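Example record used in the benchmark description.
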Amino acid sequence: MLTALARSITHHPWRYLVAWVLVVSAALLPALGVVGDGLFSRLTSGQASVPGEARTGADLLDRADPRGPTVLAQVDDLDATDPTDPAVQEALGAAVADLVERSDVATAAAPLAPVPGLSPGVPPEVARSLTADDGDGVLITVTLEPGLGETREARAMDAVQERLEAVGGDLPAADVRVASTAGLAEVFSEVVEKDLVTGEALALPLSLVVMVVVFGGLLAAGIPLVGALASIAGGLGALTAFTHVIDVDASIVNVVTVLGLGLCIDYGLLVVSRYREELGGAMVEAYVGSAPGEPPPDPRRLGASRALRDQALVATVASAGRTVVFSAVTIGISLCGLLVFRSDILRSMGLGAAAVVVLALAVALTLVPALLVVGGARLTRPGIATRIPGLRVLARALGDVAPPEGVFSRLTRRVQRRPWVTVAATVLVLGALAAPATQLMLRADGVELLPVDNPSRVFFTDLEERYPAASAPTVTVVADAQPGAVGGYRDRLAADLPDAEVGPPRPVGDLTAVDVRAAPGASDPEQREVLDAVHSRDAPFETYATGQLAGTSDFTDDLLDRAPWAVALVAGATFVLLFLMTGSVLVPATALVANVLSLGAAVGVLTLVFQDGWFEGLLGFTSNGGVESFAVPLTLAFGFGLAMDYEVFLLARILDARRSGLRTDAAVVAGLQRSGRIITSAALIIVVVFAGFVAGDLLAIKQVGLGLAVAVAIDASLVRMLLVPAFMTVLGEANWWAPRPLRALHDRFGISEEGAAAEPASSASHRSDVPS
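Model output (structure tokens):
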């Protein structure tokens, strides 16, 4: 199939290029809003949640008392004027009166004092909740009618915000700030869009520099980058399509596009490198295969031969294309693990990531080969990196075509001399890095994911600190009973929580709600103690604990409950795939062990940085005391897929060497020497790509970006260069062992390259009697 595809591309490269132009255009037009609303206007924001007690309780409250979005206004800097001053009361009263007259406003409230004969004001407890604890501000709350529809609701939000801001005109000395919970989705979308531009502005140029060094020229380096741009466009289009079917969280966009960018560059690097290697080998064969008595062809003209280039492309797609397919399937398997969980955000990320993996595969098998055909003989000419002394040194170290002996072969032989020492030292280092993960605390933050100086985060942080009675409670207990029947339960709960504030039962339709607030300044463990107390308190009626903390608890419980199934699915499928590739049961087992160690180390570093606050100033964030709940499963799923990507790259070359007749130790040396440069270069580019997104503002994206950058860096260095060769040296020829029934199964169904018993022709380019 791959050979037939390659031949089709050699005959009709422009058809494939035109098809990709159409695909990219069809994806970008709706994503950028040229056609339709655009991707970023359709994104949602909210905490990661799962079906469970917290969501059920919230849904019951919404059905019992449906409400529209709430708009809030903080009127500050009243230190020179008492909130009960007639001028302040007049401005607040006029605003409330204007707002309640609107048909799209359900309620409007402010701390209005009673006016004899005119207005009873608001109850004293409401006035206290709407007055800042420091006495220097008041809060106005406005709730819209439910079910207004998107267009009417947007107009109502704008009108309400305009009227609230006008309070500042009535009180010139006051500072009026307006925000809404519904407006947070737009705020998150703006930050995501800005981070996407920032990340790509950093990642793409740096990736190009690395690839220029690897390939020695701009033309060859630009081909994987063109493929990456096509992948980004396709990924945005796929996400836009998903928004019409499911809710797509704003944080998904950057995670999915950065994965597509990294994979496309990875695969493009592999394909272009293999093509140049195969073309070099074909040119050498043509040179040494001239008829006796005839002068050999001019080596400088061989690269212009269309037949040789087509031959090299077919060989490339048949070999490197097979590796890419293996890698894409392996990554797809790791992403399937996300579908096991019940969280909408994890499932949507899994689907979005699977879409970009398919795109990256299509780019590597069609777009990149078509560009190679069009590039022609120019790809064989020395590039700019070979003419600049500083870049020439780097190009020799990271160049895409490896000599038979070099840094990686020498490193492997050193490892093979003391394999047990290498295993022990590497495991010790990885274990030390993974140790902090045992103290990991998951969070499901909202505005806390925004930068500390973001106006929306400042607004809601001030709201929680200065208006604690008006902010969201730590836990809201929803009881399927009338308020009179809940009084005793409320009193017993208050006795269980002497330091917390347990509010009176309040009717919500046919239900009753009890708000529980932890003591001011309570730590995360202390707030969890409040939730534990609610869960452990029995009641003679059905109760549901709801709120952000309860939702996080349900999410964490779902992760822990379903993680074994996800791990079993991913590990089992990966084991089967690697067995079909190698015919061994030990190679897949050691690969899984190595990946567990490297991913554990990555999560440990994630904990140190974002939970314990290491390098806050350098990375530009403020620790929230934990790691975002979906950042860890995403780091594990994507990190596992990328690690297996490099495992497939390495194993493919080791198997090539074994098929040429080498024993295991020599095959490992040859395989690592041939793949080491590509793995190192690809990992370097991936780290650059993820580091570009660490420079963004959204905390969740920083966490995923750093976690994946660390995972790739550890895997490409400690694991792939040290631990895997040491494991294979210890096992020796036993690496390829499998029980007899499984060997028979592999002989029948195994996936291997036909006719690969001979040494690849490209190895001839290293003979001493052939011009370089």
